[in-house]
Here is the input.
Amino acid sequence: MKLATWNVNSLKVRLPQVIDWLAAVQPDVLCLQELKLEDASFPLAAIEAAGYRAVFSGQKTYNGVAILSRTPAGEVVRGIPGFDDPQKRVIAATIDGIRIVCAYFPNGQAVGSEKFSYKLEWLAALTRWLQGEVASHPELALLGDYNIAPEDRDAHPDWPDEIHVSAPERNAFQALLALGLSDAFRRFEQAEKSYSWWDYRMMAFRRNFGLRIDHILVSTPLAQRCRSCVIDKAPRKLERPSDHAPVIVELVPAGT
DNA sequence: ATGGCGCATGGAATGCGA
Here is the structure.
């Protein structure tokens, strides 16, 4: 079973790439972030024609998240319960017994800014909510664009000591791990300077001037089933790419 | 990184992302 996440930076622009990628990679679940479109504009017909179902929480211009899956999604939750937020950043659903949480974490803009405070409040609310989710759903995966590079090795050595790598953000990431979650990518040997995002400017992708900010955290029962976790750089090499690459985790069947 | 691009909105110039 394959679970994946991809910040597409406009589903309208990236739809052909998403359809091609589904056919090539055949994930069972794909979490999407930054749809940048309203629910009424969600390209459901094209996704169903590709053999997938979808649940989504869209928004004009900014944000917007979706979960695509081969099998039906139940217990759908939009947003963080108890955290009133007009920004559409979270959708959760249960698919084949696994609680899938798809999240587009706030950027934060600059350490100390108003948006940075929002990022930390949002992170605290997410963590609080997930504590209960992990307890009620032993098999849980949190997939998305975290906008946090958890360790120094997750940022290019020349990346400034600012947003995405600050102590409060990294502490918040550790608080998610403390729920009993595990970074699937780090369960395996990986190349040095493995990143999932590269700025469009400055030939950043060619120079590999990037950050690893797209993650898949898994609960202990799922961690034991992880066979691999990879960042797929192929879509970043296409014409008009998203600035993010997809991340894929492969699970072996339960009880094997 | 000083900025550099890409996307959305709206129909030019600006805000935002990371």
Remarks:
- Residues 9-10, 12-13, 34, 36, 60-62, 107-109, 147, 158, 160, 163-164, 197, 199-204, 211, 213, 240, 243 of chain A lie near DNA strand B (CB under 10 Å from a C1').
- The mean pLDDT of chain A is 97.
